[in-house]
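Lecture notes, unit on protein representations.

Consider one protein chain, 203 amino acids long.
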Amino acid sequence: MNDEFIVTSQPRNRTKEHLKMALIQLIKKKGYHAVSVKDIVDQSGYNRSTFYLHYQDKFVLAEELLSQKLEGLRCSVGRPYTHGQKVYTNKLNSESFQIVDYIHEHRDFFELIRYDDTLPGLHTGFPQTILKIYEEQFIFETINNSPVNMEYFKYYTAYGFFGLLNNWILSGFRESREAFIQNVIELTKTHIHSFHYVGDKLD
């Protein structure tokens, strides 16, 4: 990567992030379908030509925003672990849940799930991403090695975890990060003995 590319890409990325933040703010104010390109450029302080330099329309902007944040969610999960690591649930701690940190750090975005007229694909994409993480990155061992349909088990636990995350977001993150994670850990220990982190197939 040469210096010229770095110099030109940094302002470009900054502009795109400003446009995405403007879209997030506008969705909360007036709903996704009422937002126009003019609204976005007015909110962000850019002009229409700058917008069209980066995006064909608001739909492309919305798709990139959703994809970027869900990809970040997926990547955050493996940060505490090494490939092949076995983790016992009675050893879990707050550092085991980088995904919670990611959601809290990007709460302006994830708060969009509270709205009906919100970013297209968020209401389905968010839980589906959690499920794909469970399906692709972890091998679970049940308490006492109880035999279960593991496909069902991952679906059950993934959507259960999503439900907790969703409730935390809907509450306005009322519970502290530490308290939320501790409650998740206590629930996890009731049905998961340990897991192997097998990595990310997309890495």
